[in-house]
Amino acid sequence: MATEAHDAAAGAHGAGEAVGMPQLDISTWPNQIFWLLVTLVAIYLIVTRVAVPRIGAVLAERRGTITNDLAAAEELKLKATEAEAAYNEALATARAEAAKIVAAAKAEIEADLAKATAKADADIEAKAAVSEQRIAEIRAGALESVTEVAKDTAKELVSVLGGKADARSITAAVTARMKG
Amino acid sequence: MSEGASTGFQIHPMDQFIVKPLFGGDHIAWYTVTNVTLWMAIAVVVIAALLMLGTRRRAIVPSRSQSVAELLYGFIHNMVEEVTGHDGVKYFPYVMTLFLFILFSNLLGLLPMSFTTTSHVAVTMTLAMLVFVGVTVLGFVKNGIGFLSMFWVSSAPLVIRPILAVIEVISYFVRPVSHSIRLAGNLMAGHAVIKVIAGFATLAVASPVIVGAVTAIYALELLVACVQAYVFTILTCVYLRDAVGGAHH
Amino acid sequence: MEGDIAEMGKYIGAGLAAFGLGGAGIGVGNIAGNFLAGALRNPSAAASQTANLFVGIAFAEALGIFSFLIALLLMFAV
């Protein structure tokens, strides 16, 4: 049985028939093992001589670059924070200054305004007094003229009506009317 | 055996694994240039192209092939560091070599008409024995006779420790077998399945379905090729941890 | 005739040995399913455990591979 299998396996690489398992054909093993060892040595040399140093260097360099970039970014961030703080400070100062100026201006304006108001009030009062005086004068004048006109009119009316007007009674009558 | 071949379908799923001399002749001596040689050489050329040409410019901002190389490098480097600890990092080139060879052999084997070197037990057994012998020697060099304490499970009750020791010893010596047969078996089975299913396409009625099925299995095999390379590598790291990190489970 | 019976026994044995792969399938599925269940509960811890996932799958698969090996040996080497 065993010899038959061996024969079948041995015949496998000759005729290419579908017999046996080529893997179990011991006669090809030294060949495969030899070429495998050659291959492994070749790959090992490629890996150790070229790949590992190169890729290791590239990865280290990249890590270095990334670290540097991160450090630079950190520094820039710090600077930005500082700048922001300075800006904020300046802004606060400017704001305070502005508030001060606004307050001063307001006070000044208020003082001016008060002064002007007071002056205007005084002027108005003076003018009002003058006007009142004049109004009083005019009123007095007017009253007087009204009395005069009334007397004259009354005298004329009385004389037209044929009466004799005596000045004293007319005056008394007009005065009484005016009061009424 | 020959009856299956002579009746009905002519499916020869195992023909793709036959080792043939490239330049005629029947005899295969240890130095004969065979299709094994050819496909291993192609794997070396592809790896060299990726690792040497891809990283030629050493760019800070990598090109496409350079980032693939860096990805592989970082992937294996992290795996070695994570699994074996800091002491294991100096064995990284060995692990990287194994990983690159297995990954590219698996992937090249998926090309139509190609030869899958890692589907051969001789190849995977050699790879596994390299790891096994290397780890054992390294363990004894690093830990002296204390390496044997790995088999003496001190956390178990004293009564069952001898039994556990026997089991541990057996499982230790079975490691290269499972390590190698897993890889070869997965690839061989996958390729044979593709061949068998593709063979059914000789039935014209079934061929549209077969094309779909072969495509699906091919996609699965692509995944298997990567996963098996990963599994082989991570098991190498796990075994390496035993040697480097001493006896702790 | 005797050879035919031996041949038959080989093939039957290989087929029976292939059952072992079903066990490996159950084991791998169990590991992957439990990993997924755990990963869904605690997704943040999942990424750090994928290596353990693959190691576990590999160990579970190893035993299935032994039966595969037995099947192949029966088919082709015995």
H/E series of chain B, N to C?
HHHHHHH
Tell me, rounded to a whole number, the average pLDDT of chain B.
Answer: 86
Over the alpha carbons, how many angstroms does the gyration radius of chain A reach?
Answer: 65 Å
Strand content of chain B: under 5%
SS field, number of helical segments of chain A: 3
Query: Into which percent range does the helicity of residues of chain B fall?
Result: 55-70%
Tell how many strands the DSSP assignment of chain A holds. Answer: 0
Biggest interface and residues each: A-B, 46 and 59 residues
Inertia-based shape of chain B: globular
Overall pLDDT confidence of chain A: 83
Largest sheet of chain A: none
Number of domains of chain A: 1
Summary, kept brief:
The complex is a heterotrimer of chains A (180), B (249) and C (78). Chain A is mostly helical and 180 residues long.
Short key terms for the protein model shown above:
heterotrimer, A: 180 residues, mainly alpha, 3 helices, 89% helix, disordered N terminus, B: 249 residues
Structural features, described:
The complex is a heterotrimer of chains A (180), B (249) and C (78). With 180 residues, chain A is mainly alpha-helical. Chain A has helices spanning 2-15, 29-161, 167-179. Chain A is rod-shaped. In chain B, 65% of the residues lie in helices and 0% in strands. Chain B is built from seven helices and no strands. Chain B has helices spanning 2-6, 35-53, 64-84, 92-109, 121-143, 161-199, 207-244. Chain B starts with a helix and ends in a 5-residue tail after the last helix. Chain C is mainly alpha-helical. Chain C contains three helices and no strands. Chains in contact: A-B, A-C, B-C. The interface between A and B is large, with 46 and 59 residues.
List the helices and strands and how they pair.
The complex is a heterotrimer of chains A (about 180), B (about 250) and C (about 80).
Chain A: H1 2-15, H2 29-161, H3 167-179
Chain B: H1 2-6, H2 35-53, H3 64-84, H4 92-109, H5 121-143, H6 161-199, H7 207-244
Chain C: H1 2-41, H2 43-46, H3 50-77
Helix pairs in contact in C: 1-3
